[in-house]
C-alpha cells in the first residue's frame, strides 16, 4: 500500500505534491519521489527513507515553474526500499514517468518480452516494467498515426490490457507537460476536482485542504486531467464515461482513517482486502496450487522451529496445527525472548521460521542470528519490506498487509495466517501428503473469504459493540480455546489487555481445571471459542464447569452448535481451520469496542510500541 498523487493547475506543483504525500505517509514511508516537467525537461527526483529526505533534495532545486507533476510515497513489495527502486519510474526513452500503487503479477513475463525487444531495466520493480510497456505502446500508436490527442489514452488502454494484477497509476508525459493521466484496477484512486486545478490521489487526505469535490474512480477506468478539465475513460475501450463529483465533509484525520474512528478499526475492516493481497501472485494460473517461489530452492524442513513474539507468536502457534496436520512436519513454537537464552538443539534438516510484522523486534532478530550461527536455514515471514529480519533471513516471504499503523496488530496477523496456510499446503503437496482435491478446496475457500468477511464484518461489529457494553465492567476476563482455537484464545486475551487495560488470560480450555477454574466467579467472565470442530464437545463440557461456578460466558460459535450460555455470538462458517478468518476479527472487534467504550487511546495504548526494538 503506497501513496500516489498527481496535480495539474496554476500553482507550483512540487510543493503541493510533497504536502499531499505528507498526508499520505500513513500508507507507506520507506522511500519517495516526484516527477514534473519544467523548461521542456522531465525531471525525476527520488529519495530513500522518510519524506523529509526527498524534501531536502528538492530544496536544493528550483522547481517553481512546474505546474503539473506526480508523486509517490512507498511501501515496498517488489525490490528493497532504496533510491533506485523508489518511484517515479520512467520508460526506455525517458519521456514517460509514472507512480504506482499495487502489484503487477505478470511483470516478469512482460519484462522478458521487452528485454528481448531491446529494453534495458534499472530496477527489480514491477512498476518500471509498466512504464516501459506504456512507452513502447505509445511509440507504436504514434507510428500508427493515432490522433495526437488520443495517443496517450490509446497507449494506456492497450498497454494495461496486458497487465495482470492490481494498479493505481499516475502518469506524466514529457510531450504533454500540464496533463496528468491515471488508471485504476483493484487499487484505490480518486480525483479531487475544481475549476482551476485538479488532483489525482490514492486517498482523499492528499488534496482535502484544496477541494472537497471528489470523483472515485472505478476498476477499469482511465482518466485525463488538465488544469481546468478532467475526463474519465473506459480502459478496455478507451471510450469516454460520464461521472459526477461527490462532496466530502471529512476532516484530514478522519480521511486518513478512511472515515473510521481509529486506525485499528480501519485495519480490522481492511482484512478482506488483505486476504486478497496475500493470495495475489501466490496461486498457480489455474488457481489449483500454491506457488511460493521463496521456498522453491529450499528442501521441506525435517523439523520446523517457529520463533516470534506477541501476536506473531500466536500466529505461529496456530500454524503449528496445520504444519503437523497437512504437512506432517514436526513443529515447535518458541517465544523469542526465552529461546534466545536457551541451549537449543537444532537437528540436520531443521529449519527456522521467524515471524515478525515489523521485522525489527529485537528478541526475534537475536534468535535469527543465533540459529544462523548454529547453521540453520532461516525463513523470514515479515510485513515490512527490507527490514532487518527480512534482510538477514535466508529467504523472506512478505505478508503484503500494507502498513499497520495501530500498535495493536490486527490485519498483520490475518496476513500471517494466510501465508502460513499457503506454506502448509505447499509443503504438504511437496511431500505428496495432500491430494489436489484437498488443496484446491482449501484455496477455493480462501478465495471466497474476502467477500464473505466483507459482508459479515458490519454485523459482527454490531454484536461486538453490544457485548462490549454488557461486559466492559468486568475486572478480568478468561479466554478459552482448544486445538487451533487455543492460540486464538491467547490472541483474544492479548488484544483486550493491550488496548482496554482489563486483565485477561488466554488458556487452553482443557488446562482450566488444573488451576484457573479457581478464578471463576460472576465478575470474571469467560470468552470461549466454541467453533464447529471436532473438539466442540470438549469445549462444551469445559463451559459447563464454568457455569457450575456461576461464571458468565460469551461463546463465539457457529450455526448448529448447541450451547446455552449467557451470550452466544454466531460467526460464519468457512471450512475447518479457515474459520479463523472470522473468529480472529470477532476477537479483535470485541477488544476494540470494549476499549473504545472505556474511552481508551486505542491506536496508541499506554506503555506499548509498534515495534519493540529493545530487549
Ligand atoms: C500486538 O498487538 C503487539 N503489538 C505485539 O505483541 C507484537 O505482536 C509483538 O511486539 C511482535 O511484533 P512483530 O510482529 O513486529 O515482531
UniProtKB/TrEMBL annotation:
<dbReference type="GO" id="GO:0006047">
    <property type="term" value="P:UDP-N-acetylglucosamine metabolic process"/>
</dbReference>
<dbReference type="GO" id="GO:0097367">
    <property type="term" value="F:carbohydrate derivative binding"/>
</dbReference>
<dbReference type="GO" id="GO:0005975">
    <property type="term" value="P:carbohydrate metabolic process"/>
</dbReference>
<dbReference type="InterPro" id="IPR035466">
    <property type="entry name" value="GlmS/AgaS_SIS"/>
</dbReference>
<comment type="subunit">
    <text>Homodimer.</text>
</comment>
<keyword id="KW-0677">Repeat</keyword>
<dbReference type="InterPro" id="IPR047084">
    <property type="entry name" value="GFAT_N"/>
</dbReference>
<dbReference type="InterPro" id="IPR017932">
    <property type="entry name" value="GATase_2_dom"/>
</dbReference>
<dbReference type="Pfam" id="PF01380">
    <property type="entry name" value="SIS"/>
</dbReference>
<feature type="active site" description="For Fru-6P isomerization activity">
    <location>
        <position position="610"/>
    </location>
</feature>
<keyword id="KW-0315">Glutamine amidotransferase</keyword>
<comment type="function">
    <text>Catalyzes the first step in hexosamine metabolism, converting fructose-6P into glucosamine-6P using glutamine as a nitrogen source.</text>
</comment>
<dbReference type="GO" id="GO:0006002">
    <property type="term" value="P:fructose 6-phosphate metabolic process"/>
</dbReference>
<feature type="domain" description="SIS">
    <location>
        <begin position="291"/>
        <end position="434"/>
    </location>
</feature>
<dbReference type="GO" id="GO:0006487">
    <property type="term" value="P:protein N-linked glycosylation"/>
</dbReference>
<dbReference type="InterPro" id="IPR046348">
    <property type="entry name" value="SIS_dom_sf"/>
</dbReference>
<dbReference type="GO" id="GO:0004360">
    <property type="term" value="F:glutamine-fructose-6-phosphate transaminase (isomerizing) activity"/>
</dbReference>
<dbReference type="Pfam" id="PF13522">
    <property type="entry name" value="GATase_6"/>
</dbReference>
<keyword id="KW-0963">Cytoplasm</keyword>
<feature type="domain" description="SIS">
    <location>
        <begin position="467"/>
        <end position="605"/>
    </location>
</feature>
<dbReference type="InterPro" id="IPR029055">
    <property type="entry name" value="Ntn_hydrolases_N"/>
</dbReference>
<feature type="domain" description="Glutamine amidotransferase type-2">
    <location>
        <begin position="2"/>
        <end position="228"/>
    </location>
</feature>
<feature type="active site" description="Nucleophile; for GATase activity">
    <location>
        <position position="2"/>
    </location>
</feature>
<dbReference type="InterPro" id="IPR001347">
    <property type="entry name" value="SIS_dom"/>
</dbReference>
<keyword id="KW-0032">Aminotransferase</keyword>
<dbReference type="InterPro" id="IPR035490">
    <property type="entry name" value="GlmS/FrlB_SIS"/>
</dbReference>
<keyword id="KW-0808">Transferase</keyword>
<dbReference type="InterPro" id="IPR005855">
    <property type="entry name" value="GFAT"/>
</dbReference>
<dbReference type="GO" id="GO:0005829">
    <property type="term" value="C:cytosol"/>
</dbReference>
<protein>
    <recommendedName>
        <fullName>Glutamine--fructose-6-phosphate aminotransferase [isomerizing]</fullName>
        <ecNumber>2.6.1.16</ecNumber>
    </recommendedName>
</protein>
Amino acid at each position: 500500500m503506497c501513496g500516489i498523487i498527481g496535480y495539474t493547475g496554476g500553482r507550483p506543483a512540487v510543493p503541493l505534491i510533497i504536502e499531499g504525500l505528507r498526508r499520505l505517509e500513513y500508507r507507506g514511508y520507506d522511500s519517495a519521489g516526484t516527477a514534473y516537467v519544467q523548461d521542456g525537461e522531465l525531471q525525476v527526483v527520488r529519495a530513500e527513507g522518510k519524506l523529509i529526505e526527498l524534501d531536502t533534495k528538492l530544496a536544493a532545486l528550483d522547481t517553481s515553474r512546474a505546474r503539473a507533476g506526480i508523486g509517490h510515497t512507498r511501501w515496498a513489495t517488489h525490490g528493497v526500499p532504496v533510491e533506485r527502486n523508489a518511484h517515479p519510474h520512467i520508460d526506455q526513452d525517458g519521456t514517460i514517468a509514472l507512480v504506482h500503487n499495487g502489484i503487477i503479477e505478470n511483470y516478469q513475463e512482460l519484462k522478458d518480452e521487452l528485454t528481448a525487444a531491446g529494453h534495458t531495466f534499472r530496477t527489480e520493480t514491477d512498476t518500471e516494467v509498466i512504464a516501459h510497456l506504456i512507452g513502447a505502446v505509445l511509440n507504436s500508436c504514434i507510428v500508427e498515426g493515432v490522433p495526437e490527442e488520443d495517443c496517450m489514452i490509446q497507449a494506456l488502454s492497450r498497454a494495461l490490457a496486458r497487465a495482470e494484477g492490481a494498479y493505481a497509476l499516475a502518469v506524466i508525459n514529457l510531450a504533454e507537460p500540464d496533463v496528468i493521466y491515471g488508471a485504476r484496477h483493484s487499487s484505490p484512486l480518486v480525483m479531487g476536482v475544481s475549476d482551476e486545478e485538479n488532483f489525482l490521489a490514492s486517498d482523499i487526505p492528499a488534496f482535502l485542504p484544496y477541494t472537497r469535490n471528489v470523483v472515485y474512480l472505478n476498476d477499469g477506468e482511465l482518466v485525463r486531467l488538465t488544469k481546468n478539465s478532467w475526463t474519465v475513460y473506459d480502459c478496455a475501450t478507451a471510450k469516454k464515461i460520464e461521472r459526477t463529483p461527490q462532496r466530502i465533509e471529512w476532516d484530514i484525520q478522519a480521511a486518513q482513517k478512511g472515515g473510521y474512528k481509529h486506525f485499528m478499526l480501519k485495519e480490522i475492516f481492511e482484512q478482506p482486502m488483505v486476504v486478497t493481497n496475500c493470495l495475489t501472485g501466490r496461486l498457480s494460473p489455474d488457481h489449483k496450487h500454491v506457488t511460493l517461489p521463496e521456498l522453491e530452492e529450499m528442501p521441506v524442513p525435517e523439523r520446523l522451529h517457529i520463533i516470534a513474539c506477541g501476536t506473531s507468536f500466536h500466529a505461529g502457534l496456530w500454524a503449528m496445527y496445520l504444519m503437523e496436520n497437512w504437512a506432517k512436519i514436526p513443529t515447535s513454537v518458541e517465544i523469542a525472548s526465552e529461546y534466545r537464552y536457551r541451549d537449543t538443539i537444532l537437528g540436520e534438516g531443521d529449519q527456522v521460521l521467524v515471524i515478525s510484522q515489523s521485522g525489527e523486534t529485537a528478541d526475534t532478530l537475536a534468535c535469527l542470528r543465533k540459529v544462523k550461527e548454529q547453521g540453520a536455514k532461516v525463513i523470514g515471514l515479515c510485513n515490512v519490506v527490507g527490514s532487518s529480519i527480512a534482510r538477514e533471513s535466508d529467504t523472506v516471504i512478505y505478508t503484503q498487509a500494507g502498513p499497520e499503523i495501530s500498535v495493536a496488530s490486527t490485519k498483520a496477523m490475518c496476513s500471517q495466517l494466510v501465508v502460513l496456510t499457503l506454506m502448509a499446503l505447499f509443503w504438504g503437496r511437496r511431500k505428496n501428503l495432500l491430494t489436489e482435491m484437498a488443496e484446491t478446496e482449501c484455496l477455493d475457500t480462501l478465495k471466497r473469504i474476502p467477500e464473505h468477511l466483507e459482508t459479515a464484518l458490519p454485523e459482527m461489529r454490531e454484536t461486538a459493540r453490544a457485548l462490549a457494553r454488557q461486559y466492559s465492567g468486568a475486572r478480568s476476563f478468561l479466554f478459552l480455546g482448544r486445538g487451533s482455537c487455543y492460540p486464538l484464545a491467547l490472541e483474544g486475551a492479548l488484544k483486550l489487555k493491550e488496548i482496554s487495560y482489563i486483565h485477561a488470560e488466554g488458556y487452553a480450555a482443557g488446562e482450566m481445571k488444573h488451576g484457573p477454574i479457581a478464578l471463576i466467579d460472576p465478575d470474571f467472565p469467560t470468552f470461549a471459542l466454541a467453533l464447529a470442530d471436532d473438539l466442540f464437545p470438549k469445549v462444551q463440557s469445559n463451559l459447563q464447569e464454568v457455569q457450575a461456578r456461576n461464571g458468565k460466558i460469551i461463546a463465539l460459535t457457529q450455526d448448529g452448535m448447541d450451547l446455552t450460555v449467557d451470550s452466544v455470538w454466531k460467526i460464519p462458517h468457512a471450512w475447518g481451520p479457515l474459520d479463523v478468518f472470522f473468529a480472529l476479527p470477532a476477537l479483535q472487534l470485541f477488544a476494540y469496542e470494549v476499549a473504545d467504550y472505556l474511552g481508551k487511546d486505542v491506536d496508541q495504548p499506554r506503555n506499548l510500541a509498534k515495534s519493540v526494538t529493545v530487549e
